[in-house]
Amino acid sequence: MGGGARELAGYLAALAGWVAALAAAVLPQWRQSSYAGDAIITAVGLHEGLWMSCAAQSTGQVQCRLHDSLLSLEVHIQTCRALMVISLLLGFFGIIVSVVGMKCTKVGEEDPVTKSRIAVAGGVLFVLSGLCTLAAVSLYATQVTYEFFRKSTIPINARYEFGSALFVGWGAASLSMLGGSLLCCSCPAKERRGQQYHRQPQPSTAREYV
């Protein structure tokens, strides 16, 4: 795979990862629980995310409510919120920086070494964005696992389990880090050596006579 194709593949993967991270941050299905009574009509599905909690009735009615106060939230939710916001900001700047540094764009064509360095910087931003997303979903999953297995009077079938947003977040982190790694392969060292080689003056074999 050529350098330009590799950069394009990395950029598309990282962009898809950023979009998936945005979807994971917005979705309320970070953890979910379902409780069914004696009659199936009393079944209720509960979903909780970083910003809101929802209850879905068996009749199809869904009610959502935003979390009341930021300071009253649990520590792991506040931490995951901060990590996801940082991840989205890093990914946003990575999108802009990578476009400038990619070989398939016209910006900065006169200096390919600097252009490659910019592409590497964009790849680093994507990798950091993926790490923040991975840390957020893993921390939340750890808390859900701890609450599920600790001693409690809540029946097991009514306890919270992993929601779909966690799996979306893991996929987003993988895509962002993969795309960022491909962009980081745009090392400018070879181009710099090639330019220095071509710029070396050729020794003249002709003799000058006075």
Automatic annotation (TrEMBL):
Protein location: Cell junction, Tight junction; Cell membrane
Mode of membrane association: Multi-pass membrane protein
GO cellular component, one term: plasma membrane
Keywords carried by this UniProt record: Cell junction, Cell membrane, Membrane, Tight junction, Transmembrane, Transmembrane helix
Primary residence: other
PROSITE patterns per the UniProt record, alphabetical: CLAUDIN (PS01346)
One Pfam family in the UniProt entry: PMP22_Claudin
Domain of life from the UniProt record: Eukaryota
Residues annotated as transmembrane: 75-97, 118-142, 162-185
Matching Gene3D superfamilies: 1.20.140.150
One MF annotation (Gene Ontology) recorded for this entry: structural molecule activity
Family: Belongs to the claudin family.
Function recorded in the entry: Claudins function as major constituents of the tight junction complexes that regulate the permeability of epithelia.
Name recorded for this polypeptide: Claudin
Lineage: Eukaryota, Metazoa, Chordata, Craniata, Vertebrata
